[in-house]
């Protein structure tokens, strides 16, 4: 137990900050709302950083635990805690929130207070998801976080935003409702406990495990998203405003993957092993097939969206090979993808703010008018395609190694992503940035301003640091991942 | 034969409210100008006094310490003795030869129902005066329907239930048709009357069979006769089917739901609110007393019947609501599906002869219906806030761009919609969660899966309202009307949905204690 409830603070500071920003009302006080949001995001990050610095990497146990009875009537507790698997995501989320607030500073002129409030509240809810130790608390945060993103896509989104917002909401709800039934089932069969760690020890027959696995799978697969339930993501990404895309890609997609590690693997280990071939197959389809789908996109955001699905396929692949390299690699990949995909969407946002087009064909020769931007974009594109020295390489390489350890051909198939990924990212980069100035609009582009420079530079530093020296991140995971693997290997039968 | 004066104390609320209604009737016949205004004020005062009277046993003898106790899963009702304030001892407090009962359930439901009626009047005040419906009769009919609700809640005999039900129904028929120049309104009133009379007939027929089989009308005696197997089973089962059908009609559960959409749509919105809120509490009490208590011994049989009703209601209500463009009709279908959810709790009381969790399962139903009433009040309250003289705000499209007109009310309506859809942190989620928990506990997984899948369908049409308010441009720009009092009450009502969603423990525990003590 720590004296300072860092986790609670990292959840509730952004939420109350958001509510406060909401109180500023209409757009007359937009500047006030922006500053409240900035302060809340900074404060949120400030309380999340100690989670990393005070973390005891040698222990696999939950840390920074907080327990309080929430609804004793049905034995729901307000139990928070993080281990090496979840802690990095709380920090990442708090960091991305700050980036998003800064990125939306001038761009959003319409209902600023609601925009900032939605992002801050969502940030708090996402932190809640990663730090819940009680399943219902997890579920409540999980589902509540749909509301702000639904509104973000619907209010500040593009032309087809209503369709995208509904598809996003209903798709995700579909999965999570079945998970809720599974939770209740587990509650009853564990003798009345919603504590996730009690469920880890709960013995279950294989048939029950299989059913629960499917309920979890549907929920998390939609969220990851895995092939073939991925179709909501390109729509959501394309229509969402830049900030929405960034949060969705950087954090939203990690929820599903995190769910696999927190629920599927430890609660139903035998079913996880039973269905591992299926999961690996689906992951490989996502990696390879979706990679090729990304290649033919004409919309930049859609391309990055498909590339996200492909990268997340790598993550689920890493999980279901049940070796340390695979899981740790997948976790590194998740964090790296948080930086890289967020940065990619921000870069596209920078272009979109100037040209109001996401079509690759409308661009060409951007480097001539925006040299500084082109440099940053280059770095992130390289990271997205997994160039050594960037964070993108570390995770992919670890997962590929794990895959070869598991089965050579799986590793071989997975490694093709290094080629396909490079192909679609760099080809897109070439068409947008290089070449002669394509049209008069491009020639009128102005290079990034100081605000844009700051957030891109910060992300660039993160990408490079993680690529060159990933040890601090992998160190905190070792103990937790080892324990998880031992638990899965032992099984429950 | 010696005449014994019955104990009047348990029926104090009803006696007060009926005297007050008659007194108001007398007063307004001497008022020349603004009789409606006078009747409104007096009705509100009477309703509030009645609510205080109804709640007095709690207010006198509340023990908060026990309510916050940790281990509430195993509460056996012994902790709090709501009923012991009555003249008689024991948990139940009977009077009028067991025709009338004032137990924990009644003590909790009556104040809630009276507050719901009072809020309905408050929210509908401007609406009815804009349409010149605020005659004294309107308020008197409301008072009499409130009296019917109270009698239904406190019924100790099948006949008392019928008495209360008819009192409520007859007042409601008239209220639905109160706008007598409107074709829609009179048509709805007529439909309601014909179908309602038919259902009352069914119910009465069932009651007569139960009487024939058990030689008694007292609910406790019926239950005892069935437990001791003194009844003719064939007649009994027939009677039970009729009673269940009658109750299902009053609840508006499919396939006895046909009147709900027409009446909700046709009635003036203020009357729709009066019908949609408080009477649901009475209907729950009726279902609980007539089915769960009286037919306790036949639990396995009626649970199956209710299960089908619940499944049909949830499916039909949610699917049909999608196609609606009139928001009152949409809320009507949503009401059907919500009643289905409420029934789910009642189906989960007895599992394989084990009734250990019955009280808690029924408490889940009660929690559901109480939160539903709170949500409905808010929904129709906001609906009426958007109306003006000559403008009904009935179509879903009337909500278009509400966020631009008033962010506050758009936010409030969004909370109501998300709560109805069962999205946390709003109370609707915990209501559904609690009910589902008992459905899963009875191993009816298919029912739980069906219910959650249909909530997904339900989420669509609730989200559509949110979409119209936030994503679309406004069609008109008229400001939101309404007095400051109404706005504050309505806002508090909506915020309750969030507060109860964040801290549902206390209300859940109280209701659980009540239900465990009520049978």
TrEMBL record, chain B:
Catalyzed reaction equations: a quinone + NADH + 5 H(+)(in) = a quinol + NAD(+) + 4 H(+)(out)
Keyword Ribosomal protein attached: no
Database matches in Pfam families: Proton_antipo_M
Subcellular location: Cell membrane; Endomembrane system; Membrane
EC annotation from Swiss-Prot or TrEMBL: 7.1.1.-
Transmembrane segments: 12-31, 38-60, 104-124, 136-155, 192-214, 234-260, 281-299, 305-323, 330-351, 363-387, 408-433, 445-463, 484-506
Sequence ranges assigned to domain NADH:quinone oxidoreductase/Mrp antiporter transmembrane in this UniProt record: 155-456
Membrane topology: Multi-pass membrane protein
Source taxon at top rank: Bacteria
Keywords noted in UniProt: Cell membrane, Membrane, NAD, Quinone, Translocase, Transmembrane, Transmembrane helix, Transport, Ubiquinone
Physiological role: NDH-1 shuttles electrons from NADH, via FMN and iron-sulfur (Fe-S) centers, to quinones in the respiratory chain. The immediate electron acceptor for the enzyme in this species is believed to be ubiquinone. Couples the redox reaction to proton translocation (for every two electrons transferred, four hydrogen ions are translocated across the cytoplasmic membrane), and thus conserves the redox energy in a proton gradient.
HAMAP family per record: NDH1_NuoN_1
Subunit structure: NDH-1 is composed of 14 different subunits. Subunits NuoA, H, J, K, L, M, N constitute the membrane sector of the complex.
Similarity comment: family membership: Belongs to the complex I subunit 2 family.
Protein name according to UniProt: NADH-quinone oxidoreductase subunit N
UniProt source species: Viridibacterium curvum
Name of the encoding gene: nuoN
